[in-house]
Amino acid sequence: MATSVAKTGRVVWPDSIQKEFDINEFNGRVGTRLLSETERVRVWEIRLAPGERIGFHRHVLDYFWTAVTPGRARSYAEDGTIVEAVYSAGETRHFVYGKGEYKIHDLKNVGDADLWFTTVEFLDSANAPLKIGNQSP
């Protein structure tokens, strides 16, 4: 994954992005579709057409994602960081969160082809799973 990071602070975010962040900062819906859930894992799909995005959500569970397709995306994070990333098909990243740790971000497909990920969350992580609610547009 090639990335470009700008740490600009949330004050420069568009008002619509800031408002959505405030509404969804505890949203546990980390994908566009929940494919499977057991007592151990949640398996999510993220499929975004060019220009489409998944809104803000909070990661509290250990998880990994795999890019099914190559593509480009932009993500706003709670610390004001804006990340532009290029993904390769098959690329996988793992994340671990200690007690009380989390990450809040969104993801927008800024490429010219569909962007598709599979994400697996581990329910036996240091933090309790968040409620899976509907996210705001």
Automatic annotation (TrEMBL):
| Superkingdom in the source lineage | Bacteria
| Name the record gives this protein | Cupin domain-containing protein
